[in-house]
Amino acid sequence: MSLKSNILDNKQQFLALLGLVCVVIVLSFLSEYFFTANNLLNIGKQASINLIIGLGMTIVIISGGIDLSVGSLLALTISIMAVLNVVHDVDIVLAGFVAVTATLAAGAINGIIIQYGKVPAFITTLGMMGIARGVVLLISRGNPSMSFPEEFLWIADGSILWIPVPIFLAALAAILTAFLLKYTRLGREIYAIGGNEEAARLSGINIAYVRIAAYTICGLSCALGGVIFAARVGAAPPSSGMGYELNAIAAVIIGGTSLSGGQGKVSGTVIGALLMAVIANGLNIIEVDPYWQSIVIGSIIVIAVMVSNMRK
Amino acid sequence: MVGGAIMSKILEIKGVSKQFPGVLALDNIDFDLDEGEVHALLGENGAGKSTLVKIITGAYHRDSGIMTIGGKAVDFQTPAEAKSQGIGGIYQEFSQVNSLSVAENIFLGDYPMKGLFIDWETMNATADELLTRFGVDASATDKLSSLGVATRQMVEILKVVHRENLRILIMDEPTSALSDSETHLLFDFVRTIQATGVAIIYISHRLDEIKQICDRITVFKNGKKMSTNQAQDMSIDAIVTEMVGTELKDHFPPKNISIGDPCIEVCNLSGAGFEDISFTAHKGEVLGITGLVGAGKTEVLISVFGGAPIKSGEIKLNGTVVNIHSPIEAVKNRIGLLPESRKEQGLNLIMSCLENISLASLDKISKPFLDLKLEKEFAEQNFSKLEIRPSNPKNLAENLSGGNQQKVVLSKWLLRDSEVLMFDEPTRGIDVGAKFQIYSLIMELAKAGKTIIVASSEIDEVVGICNRVLVMRRGALVSELSGESLKTEQIVLSMSGETLVS
Question: If you average pLDDT over residues B389-402, what whole number do you get?
């Protein structure tokens, strides 16, 4: 990254990080239970799905787009898995594979329509949000399919090297995404088309490929989020993932990635997702009415962007 | 001092200085404006002219010195105060709304009202009256988007001029987007404004126009005022000498004379905005394409580069027909384009120079992961070869001056090892010293056997650097000039459509 944007990003991220640290300190004083290993792991688990989807969203937003369909795509993975596994008795691994592939394809379709149909990302993914949710309802018939196999639930409850699996997967995804953005050609091209698409095109960059890849990766992140969600809930409620697009966008924005594209970092999204999970968990522990959660998160988004604009 | 005779000074500035961290931007400047004069401010980028203008318009506050307007001392704290004293400006980037009408644009922000509603009748009538008075060929209800660039520019000026109390008008590079004939239209318009007694501060890099339109010339260099002279007393050479500081024997480096085999052949190419274009460019040659704005030069270059669809025709590279449907194929075929607008098409401003340079050559640094060290090395090589300043390639592209930005775009294609380099308006908005550097680079590339195509509406430029010049008019090639016939007058004639006896 270039010098100035590095400082800028870091400053914005630094503010979010500072906020995170402050909230953690305050909550540690307010509740003895908050700063225990158990609760912190709990927060990590809570943050993991939002973070994984947020990573896909980070890529799409850096590329100059937006994806409103992530919540529905998450539900799509879950219900395809449930229908195949629970209703049709397909092996869970195969069912998972089909579900992930289908979700990935839905992401790719987003990219294809935006690129070749010249429909703005906001509209395309808004449409996909409705379509994917409809497909979910159609194939599940509104039925939550309550019985995934016992072994599958390990994805939510098990651990790898004492780290809960969801946290492990989220961390791995974050590292891979950061690596993709910084050290691969595709990553650089994602920044390039988000920063100035015309200049990227006139430099011989294959815009169509980069854009479709960005939305496909976002679809992949929804699929991974969906698998973890299904294991955690142990069922496939057709309403799963509702409102997740806003949480993912919030994590990205709080982390200092600009909605106008071309700039942004994975570390910011990690901080953003953690901050949101800590606040949700903290409000819970100190027994604040849960309805306050979204008021607080909403305010944080606006304040984060306000503070970052003030310095300009 | 007493007496009415010398009270025609609208603006007087004495001993004004302005310090920025590390730079003395203005050093003890004296400056004045007569009623109804057009006064040119000249100097390379960073010489101090824009700082002075910003002090006059209240955007900056001076550190010392005095400023009087109409004999009264003023001390502007905000641009609004300057505006209320009758100071207005039009700047390089217009602030216009293309989807609104001419009248709506002129009165943008202070529409005449009838109670709660806009008084359309008064607004349109006043606008029409203004348009007629200043000889602008447009009607109040025309959509701005339906007008040519020059007319839009005049509308932009009327927005300032319609204010009753306008006394000082600042024009910053008003002709940078205009062709020569449009420039003449604008000049007639400027003279009408001048006749109303408004004093005009005129900033431009085009020295020939300064001679045409300005009464006096003040030259700045490194924050100091070099001189103020009557325009008629100063030759262009004298102006350049004063601006650059050293005597430039020529404004152009010597041309390359050893021209090689044909490299790129364009045969009967047609597309949006041009029809049946054929030409051949040779290795080591600098081929110029000129014509008025809108003649189709840019469209031809973009189409050859695959950036716009071709209706018919073909392109041959070194004798073989190549299929170029997109810039991807052009880049693969080692064609590079330095587009007309650097900021919108040439550069990713929020990326570092380093990343901009490698944008077309990412394959060279993917092994298979990006080798950031190698990338930096490549950028540093180009930075030192092309003398790009500031010399740290990690700076964001947006923080560089126009000339250095152009060098960054050029570096992108040098790293790609392009064989054919197409420059569209290579020196637009670039100061004199940097222009010469760009020309020298073009010549070096030609001598190294590259094929260079330069599209430019600056006639002096194509005459000065090209071996051969094609003239376009309304999307067609109308003449080809080289050798003895490569003269400014010839080009002007065929550009504007005067019949040449040939």
Answer: 88
Three-state DSSP string of B7-40: CCEEEEEEEEEEEECCEEEEEEEEEEEECCCEEE
Confidence of residue B183 (pLDDT cuts 50, 70, 90): confident
CA separation (Å) from B454 to A6, A258, B160, B313, B488?
37, 37, 36, 21, 16
Residue B456 has what DSSP assignment?
Answer: -
> b/e per residue, B18-46, with b = 16+ CB within 10 A?
beeeeeebbbebebbbbbbbbbbbbbbbb
- Look at B345 and A202 and tell me if their CB atoms are within 8 Å: yes
Q: Report the distance separating Cα A31 and Cα A25, nearest Å.
A: 10
H or E stretch at A64 = none
Q: What is each CA distance from B222 to B48, B59, B429, in whole angstroms?
A: 7, 20, 19
CB atoms A199 and B347 under 8 Å: yes
Domain B250-334+419-431+448-502 CATH class label:
alpha beta
Q: How many contacts does A have with B, using Cβ atoms within 8 A? A: 93
Cα distances from A309 to residues A246, B187, B205, B445, in angstroms, run 21, 41, 35, 44
What chain A residue is nearest to B368 in terms of C-alpha separation? A184
Q: Which residues does A14 contact at the CB level (< 8 Å), separation at least 6?
A: none
pLDDT digits (tens, 9 = 90+) for B41-67: 987 766 788 889 989 988 889 999 999
> Which helix (DSSP H) or strand (DSSP E) does residue B365 occupy?
helix B362-365
Q: Does B360 touch chain A (CB under 8 A)?
A: yes
Any residues with CB less than 8 A from the CB of B376 and at least 6 apart, and which? B354, B393
Quickly list DSSP for B337-364.
EE-S-IIIII--TTSBHHHHHHTT-HHH
Query: Using a CB-CB distance cutoff of 8 angstroms, which residues of chain B are in contact with residue A189?
Result: 362
What tokens does A248 get? Answer: 């993912």
Q: Which CATH number does B9-244 carry?
A: 3.40.50.300
Give the start-to-end residue ranges of the domains of chain B: 9-244, 250-334+419-431+448-502, 345-417
The phi, psi pair for B273, rounded to 5°, reads: 95, 0
Q: Is B438 exposed, middle or buried (0-12, 13-18, 19+ CB in 10 A)?
A: buried
Q: Tell whether the model's pLDDT for residue B3 goes beyond 60.
A: no
Tokens of B232: 């008629």
Strand, helix or coil for residue B368: coil
Taking a C-beta distance cutoff of 8 angstroms, is the pair A148, A234 a contact? yes
Indicate the number of domains in chain A.
1
**Residue A179's closest chain B neighbor by CA?**
B369
Contact B396 A2 (CB under 8 A): yes
The answer to whether the Cβ–Cβ distance between A195 and B328 falls below 8 Å is: no
Note whether A3 contacts B366, CB cutoff 8 Å. no
Residues A63, A79: Cα–Cα separation, whole Å: 29
As a whole number of angstroms, the distance between CA B201 and CA B37 comes to: 8
